[in-house]
Amino acid sequence: MKCIVGLGNPGLRYAKTRHNIGFMVIDELIKRHKWSLQKNKFKGHLTKERVSDEQIILLKPQTYMNRSGESIKELMDFYQLEPEDVLVIYDDLDLPTGKIRLRQTGGHGGHNGIRSIIDQLQSKQFNRLRMGIDRPKESVSVVDHVLGKFPKSDKVSVDQSIQKAADACETWFEKSFQEVMNEFN
């Protein structure tokens, strides 16, 4: 069983913001496979599907970003998942908009969603797919930047990164995470 988690904040106020790009990748996977999310399980929206011989869970925590780890920990405990069975998709200020990077471990890098996951799991060992959102301009705070929507000028690169991230997730359905990193990094 593999679990793909897209991080974001619930509600229309946050839809399509940079901080919700993890949700956008989950939405793309849902659309591609014509799946649907069930509500209110493990403090999140999820679906459990079968792809070939693999059970796949897609999760969008509804705890707000700073408490994402609560939702993930509940799901992992219920299904007895190991950290290597989980892939977390999230926004990253240190990557240019449109770029993606996969890695198997690391710190939180100041990202409160990742900090929450590390705190809940008591481990840094889980798969990550980082989605570039670039740093804010000097006159914009980090909070305003991550909670802001992408400008129209970034639409093409953002859409391409969401497609590429969804492709990477689908590749992980069939291959090891190391192979996915080799192919998409």
From TrEMBL:
The reaction(s) this protein catalyses: an N-acyl-L-alpha-aminoacyl-tRNA + H2O = an N-acyl-L-amino acid + a tRNA + H(+)
Gene Ontology CC terms, in alphabetical order: cytoplasm
Residue numbers annotated as active site: 19 (proton acceptor)
Subunit structure: Monomer.
Cellular location(s): Cytoplasm
Residues engaged in binding tRNA: 14, 64, 66, 112
EC number(s) on file: 3.1.1.29
Similarity annotation: Belongs to the PTH family.
PROSITE patterns referenced in this protein's UniProt entry, alphabetically: PEPT_TRNA_HYDROL_1, PEPT_TRNA_HYDROL_2
NCBIfam families: pth
CDD domains listed in its UniProt record: PTH
Function: Catalyzes the release of premature peptidyl moieties from peptidyl-tRNA molecules trapped in stalled 50S ribosomal subunits, and thus maintains levels of free tRNAs and 50S ribosomes.
Name used for this protein in its record: Peptidyl-tRNA hydrolase
Site (Stabilizes the basic form of H active site to accept a proton): 91
Domain of life: Bacteria
